[in-house]
């Protein structure tokens, strides 16, 4: 199969996650999933005459994959107008994915904000489906308001019921529809006071949140080798040919999008 040629896939389900985020479930015309991605890998989605862009794969089943799309521009606006049964181009998977072997046997702290839960969700699902292979799981997630919480059913209903799993949700602005924590993710992170002993961190969200959470984790005693994050901006071809995602000696689409903070510290400041 030519990695640069998209497969035509059918949208079989669309879920409205928030006012500006939709999750698209896709499968090939033969009723299969186009490929079997590792947690953290990416898909290039395209619409003829509009364009294409790289998106995280948020989940997969026996015969489908899902991507969650935030409304941010011309392509995503066109995608948000699609309906179940419509066609879309899909190619991939791209990227290195999360280091599953390094996470086995470890406690894991997932930290994400906004649409940053999309790539993290694929790994959370993997860990919960292979529960005995991992230690205690904490999921810390924040959004602007309750309405902006992505994957509400997972956060508020499904994941809290899983064995040895704790979910910590916060919103920037409270209201009559919210009785949980109110505050920013980096502040809530330090209030929860997680121990770095035997714990890996998966961190994904807006750049400012990643920076502030990284600083908080360093104050809490975490090592940069044990904090794993993602870079998903600027990718175009997906195979390291166009050079758009080149940073120093790395190509985000091939060497990433998953990096430890220690690896990022060795890259030029343009990150």
Report on the structure:
By secondary structure, the protein is of the alpha/beta class. Helices cover 23% and strands 32% of the residues. Strand 8 (107-113), helix 3 (117-129) and strand 9 (137-143) form a beta-alpha-beta unit. The longest helix is centred in the middle third of the chain and has 13 residues, at 117-129. It is globular. The model has no long low-confidence stretch (mean pLDDT 93).
Strand order of the largest sheet: 4-3-7-1-2-6-5
Shape: globular
Rounded mean pLDDT score: 93
The first-to-last residue Cα distance is 33 Å
- Helix percent band: 10-25%
Radius of gyration: 18 Å
| N to C succession of SSEs | EEEEEEHEHEHEHEEHEHEEEHEH
Q: Which class do the helix and strand fractions yield?
A: alpha/beta
Strand content: 25-35%
Count of helical regions: 8
Note the main sheet: 7 strands, antiparallel
Which spans of ≥5 residues are poorly predicted at pLDDT below 50? none
The count of strands amounts to 16
SSE blueprint and pairings:
Blueprint: E1 7-18, E2 21-28, E3 42-47, E4 51-56, E5 59-60, E6 65-70, H1 74-80, E7 87-94, H2 100-103, E8 107-113, H3 117-129, E9 137-143, H4 152-158, E10 165-171, E11 181-182, H5 185-192, E12 199-204, H6 207-219, E13 227-230, E14 246-247, E15 250-251, H7 252-255, E16 258-260, H8 261-265
Parallel strand pairs: 8-9, 8-12, 9-10, 10-11, 12-13
Antiparallel strand pairs: 1-2, 1-7, 2-6, 3-4, 3-7, 5-6, 13-16, 14-15
